User: Fold these one by one.
Assistant:
Number 1:
Amino acid sequence: MGFTRFRWICTFIGLIFSVVDIVSDLLLSLKYFKEGHYIWFALTLLFLLAGSQCTQIFSYSWFMNDYNGEVETKTHITHMGLLHLVHMGFFARYYDLLKTSFSCVWRVHSESSKEKELFGMAADLSMLRLMEIFLESVPQLLLQMYIILQHQHTSKLQYLCMVVSFLNVAWSTVDYWRCLRRSLPNAKEMPSGIPTVIYLLYKLLTITARILSLTLFIMLTPWSILVLVAIWLTATVWAHVVKTDFCTSLCLEEIYRSVVGVILVFTFFNIKGTKTKKEMSIYYAMSTLQNFSAPVVLFLFMPRTADSDFFLPVTVFILMSNIIGLGFLVLYYSALHPPTQDEADVVDGMVTVNTNNPLTTSRSERFLRL
């Protein structure tokens, strides 16, 4: 399937979601500042800047790699550098993709020769968005959920931010999932419909259960954040052990592995492109144990929380979303996951590609696998 009008519209919708997400988070942080909640203000702004800064670093690095050895004017390179410096490089990529693809999909005599370039641009955007949502949107959901449950501080703007963040997680996850299938060699393109819905539900339900359980741990004691740091360090070390080779420089590779560590705190991705049945099973066994223990530990050490309005609904939701989410995971990989041409039984990963030389493979072949 080529780069269609529907895909162009979806790209535009993704841009709208990104803009609304940033604006709503900025307004919420400003609201916290005016109300004197300076820690909430700082954390809300910190997550926003962390996600943006990371995407700018990788976006500019890819820009320089793509134009390495080509004749480019100094003005153009300086222009792109300034755009990334003021955190607009990510949106410049959106503009380029929408502008370049417009003539291909909305004019009668379109240029099909540009489709490979368009899908490459779309894949880059999807990877950047995936990093951004796990550095900004997901932590933002965790923070706002903690503020609501622990401090009973609610507002319409707060709910708006959470809804937009949740939509961003859903949209970006599916967008990346479909772009990856489209860009990898030896991989069948993902059909729309039931497989998309099942995969989305698996991710959203397990991530939501994870966010809620972590919120309960932090409500018990802020020192629980140290447990989060320990989980992040473990995941980051694992990325070192398996020797990811996504970047062309050691410094960027270290940043990438740190980002992978953050993502693995909330959900599982294949970080090397090989079979990961064992790793996935261990990950979700540990995650389920932590999720189920959160309400129990909170009840044992803070019995008064059992009388609160949120405790029972949150506990039931954690249990049900975790169980149903894992059920969708099993259903997807056992019946709906399209096999590669070379491998018919790869869980949460595609066919292994030759990544000994990062310059000879596409970025999507070396990024996180589904």
Note: The longest helix spans residues 115-151.
Number 2:
Amino acid sequence: MPTKTEQSTQNPPKIRLDKWLWASRFYRTRTLAKQAIEAGRVHFGGHRVKVSKEVAVGDELTIRQGSVTNYTQKTVKVLALSEVRGNATVASTLYTETDESIAQRAYFNEQKKLANLARPDHKPNKKQRRQLDKLKQQDQVY
């Protein structure tokens, strides 16, 4: 009969993916975590997964959060498992984000800021709108 330490090396502890995402505070509820997994926003090994997928320590997940036009993508490595949702400091010890993921998010945030610099600071007032309409009409005539 195998001893307890041999059993733990043979069958490492695992937990359902939706529970782990909820406990690590990626999503507010398990239902939201389940919906995100089913929508294909959570990948394991580059592939979509099912809600019942069991994660273990050392697994790498890619998680996409936010709206369709404004989302962030994180690649995290599972450091610990928990079935209980704790405070944010405890939740942050359950995973670590990869360096490539951090660099990629910083790059995309910088690109968003640069794109916003091209926007005008304010909406045109009524007089300016009339002038713009007049310019557009002149361009259409020629």
Note: The longest strand covers residues 71-78.
Number 3:
Amino acid sequence: MGPFTLGQCEARQRKRRFSRAGGSAISKIIGHNTKRSNRFHPLVSMWVFEEELNGRRLSDIINQDHENVKYLPGHRLPGNVVAVPDLLSAVSGADILVFVVPHQFIGRICDQLAGHLKSGAIGISLIKGVDQGPSGLKLISDIIRGKLGIELSVLMGANIANEVAEEKFCESTIGCKNPQHGQIFKELLQTQNFRITVVEDCDTVEICGALKNIVAVGAGFCDGLDFGDNTKAAVIRLGLMEMVAFARLFCTGSVSTTTFLESCGVADLITTCYGGRNRKVAEAFARTGRSIEDLENDLLNGQKLQGPQASAEVYKILKQKDLIAKFPLFVAVYQICYEGHPVQEFISCLQNHPEHY
């Protein structure tokens, strides 16, 4: 259990939080990489929210059968990935933390962690969402940094959890302002079939991960209304234009257009609009008229949508800044999900989009 040196930090335990599909898929990568590395201690402590399945605790199932049978069935996790149901025990002594939870829960989790982390610990967030702060946009990474006082990077990309776990080739993007830490995270996470690019434009990387889920909801509406691939292509293009415009307005520092060409940008947008859970639930919403909450409960096996809530946070920010008219796609998704506007109205936001004038 003795620590190994990682530049100026020790990688004693690779901690992550969250046992669902994304967390379990990334734990599989980290588990295999730490076993093969001279620089990382092999133990991967994975915090899980304890549940009971067929009379057994989920943490016991993971630790004894090495499979997250609820959220990532059919994929064997490495034996050095240990499920820990107590949050503070999971992070005890950790030098590197990986955050993989729905963004709705990050504030209260950080409140529990505050004052209990090892000095000098660093983290990386895979959380896709935004929040509203006093002056407008607040990134999830800002929340974590503010509450925990740690240096934080982000990882976003076209990375559907089941495909990552199946080791199908994909790419991802790390946003990190500290080049040394960027290389640490790249070594920890990259495999032959999970290739990573590190960029310094971390705010844009994170913004892409949040906003693409809103666009995917719109793509799902179009699927549910049987508008076809041409319409979906327009949703993707116009959605990307709104993502770029939003980032330029609200990200601190310069926004590099090339970041949108990384996996975190256009690639993640495309895969989410064709294969993600936000698209899936939005399609069912358009076809059935049932509530987003009911469909989420029925279709997602305990996982949470990010797109509708992200649209609500973005709408608050746009309204606060009197920018509603400039982002019709984002606004339409919010109004359909939360204000009872008919889903058929979504096509109007495309037909009358300011990009066409």
Note: Confidence is low (pLDDT under 50) at residues 1-19.
